[in-house]
Amino acid sequence: MIKLIASDIDGTLVKEGSHEIDPAYYDVIGELKEAGIIFCACSGRQYHSMMELFKPVADDIYFIASNGTVIRTRDRVLHSWKIDPELYLPLVERLRTIEGAEIVVEGPDVSWIEGTETPVARMMSNNYRYAVENVDDLTAIPTDNIIKIAVHHPNVEKATRGLDQSIRARNLSMTISGAEWLDIFAKEAGKGEAFALLQEYLGIGQEETVYFGDNLNDLPAFHEAGVAATVANARSEMQDAADIVERSFSDLGVLKELRHILDLHKRFEAQGKL
Questions:
Q1: Are 193 and 68 in contact (CB under 8 A)?
Q2: Where in the chain is CATH 3.30.1240.10?
Q3: How confident is the model at residue 168 (pLDDT cuts 50, 70, 90)?
Q4: Which residues are paired to 77 by β-bridges?
Q5: Which end of the chain is less congested by CB atoms within 10 angstroms, N or C?
Q6: How far is the C-alpha of 247 from the C-alpha of 102, rounded, in Å?
Q7: Residue 218's closest CA among 188, 247, 242, 184?
Q8: Using only C-alpha atoms, what is the Rg of the chain?
């Protein structure tokens, strides 16, 4: 039976950038806990943003934050991966050459953005509810605790073509994480690696897990899940890779599937098969 369920947020549970989630998710997460099933929110978002979204149930769930670079509970960090400080400055200089791109640098507890009145700065504070520190120069911030660098561009896939070789040469990973976002992080990190490590930490087998996701950064976690599930609004690559394609986030597809899992659990429990 299922013992661990992890889900992406933007595009899977809510509209990208939303700071509100249907309260019915809080109820079903509570029911999952009562049934002995662990829920983990897994997102490219900063932990602070995730915690705000799941505040009513934050004590009861796990978090995989910043695109799989941090695994934690509300009270403590279980594991994190950092970008080598020696790689940071040349990487920022390289990203600055991408015309029209804005850069967001993340630490475990704060994100740094150049300027205060840019569209991305307002988006991170007002929509995503990030803990943000606005700075004049991203090359002047402390570099010893950076876990992720995000690139925002209206046409991010086209704008960052050719960047992959440069990133891999620096022993880093990059992935599309949203319609206008690309994330860069340590090679050892990512949603798949973090989800697998959480399973090991909890003593749960891969066959006892479900993962919900909609974008390419979720694909590695699909490979670490017993059941890979997506939503109707997901990228075609994700729908092709999924075992289950549910209704879109706007139609609460994941909520429907979570209730189905609970119903199966109760049925097996009543039959004495658990």
A1: yes
A2: 85-186
A3: confident
A4: 72
A5: C
A6: 33
A7: 242
A8: 18
pLDDT at 21 over 80: yes
How many CB atoms sit inside 10 A of residue 21's CB? 18
What is this structure's pTM? 0.95
Q: What is 4-80+189-271's CATH number?
A: 3.40.50.1000
**Which tokens go with 35?**
């049934």
Q: What CATH fold (topology level) applies to the domain 85-186?
A: 3.30.1240
**Contact status, residue 233 vs residue 219, Cβ threshold 8 Å:** no
d(CA 106, CA 43): 13
pLDDT of residue 274: 65
Compute CA 155 distance to the chain's CA centroid, rounded to the nearest angstrom.
20
Tokens linked to 33: 């806990």
Q: Give CATH 3.40.50.1000 domain extents, the chain.
A: 4-80+189-271
* Interatomic CA distance for residues 269 and 34, integer angstroms: 13
Could you tell me which residues come within 8 angstroms of residue 126 by beta carbon, excluding any fewer than 6 positions away? Answer: none
- Are 98 and 77 in contact, with CB atoms under 8 Å apart? no
Going along 153-242, which residue ranges are E strands?
A: 172-178, 181-186, 209-212, 227-231
